[in-house]
Amino acid sequence: MKVTFPHMGNQYVATKVLLDELGVDSVIPPQCSKETLDIGTKHSPESICLPLKMNIGNYIESIRQGADTIVITGSCGPCRFGYYSILQKEILKTMGHQLDFILLDPPQGDYNKFFNSVCKLANTKNPYSIIKALAKATKALYGVDEIDEIAYHKRPREKSLGDTDRHYDQFHSDIRKAKGFKEVKALIEDTKEKMRSVEEDPERDVIKIGLIGEIYTIIEPFVNLDIEKKLGYLGVEIDKSLKISRWLTEHLYLQPLKLSSEKKIWAEAKPYLGSMIGGHARETVGYAVKYAKEGFDGLIQVYPFTCMPEIVAQSILPSVEKDFNIPYLCLIVDEMTGEAGFNTRLEAFVDLLRRRKETRGNDKLLSGY
């Protein structure tokens, strides 16, 4: 058995640790690229959402490297992601690939089913080994997300443009050669230390934007056209509403115990969207309200073309924009998205936020006389 999985932002680091610790032979999918997207688009239904097309491209690239088993997380609720494993298996079968799919559905109170799937993946029924590997993978995931948080802070403030990303990109190059939790942890700590040492310009005028939307498109850099780096270079510090580590904690550890770390966010969304409608629409609206209350300068929603939950959220966000007087930009991505137009919209939005901030500052000065 040679296992592969979809590439989704930093998730590959945790999955690699999990498989290494369980002694499972794996193929880490290459970083998502235009070739990945071209392969996925060619073999997927035209109207299906972008993440599935990217996943198919990931699988084909990994199959070429010898992968014969695919592990994928599941979903619940009214979102097409819940059908991914079924549809992807049929697509690959039509292409002549007979692969085994291991579906890791969120436990939803049924830990037996979840652990049976993990046992199949790990080829062991030793619960201690499985729990230990899961714990290490979770720690690695939080560590990599912490690297991201440092990057969000440093990029708009760094004295020499690109210093932060030299360390960041080197990490993602070196991590593929690391083996097991011990090596991964050492690399994470070393990278955090290097990134924290990047010299800042204390005079830099930084604005803050909350990045909201569908989880895959705000977490996978290729799909969102490296929006976090682009915004960082424009002098913007971002905060993402969704992170893989938060998603994992929520679905693997908290929800099965009837607990949730998102109750406050759901409460913020309730005046606009009172129930779960699929995907992360409720979180999109809730975090928009949260960021507005925290004084963020603007909001950017990113989601894949035809994503129903985010379309609903998009129809609600103008009300949040009006009620809290916070500018909002919506960016919809698919395989036809052009980088030039994408960049122009980002730059124009950031310019708008800066002028708005300057105007507010001048108004405050005048009112003080």
Describe the 3D structure.
With 369 residues, this protein is α/β, with parallel strands linked by helices. The protein folds into two domains: 1-154 and 157-199, no CATH class; 206-367, Rossmann fold (3-Layer(aba) Sandwich). 55% of the residues lie in helices and 10% in strands. It has 15 helices and seven strands. The protein has helices spanning 11-21, 34-43, 50-63, 84-94, 111-122, 127-154, 163-174, 180-196, 215-219, 227-233, 244-254, 263-269, 281-293, 308-324, 339-367, and strands at residues 3-4, 69-73, 100-104, 207-213, 236-240, 298-304, 328-333. The strands form two sheets. Strands 5-4-6-7 form a four-stranded parallel β-sheet, with helices on both faces. It starts with a strand and ends with a helix. The relative contact order is 0.11.
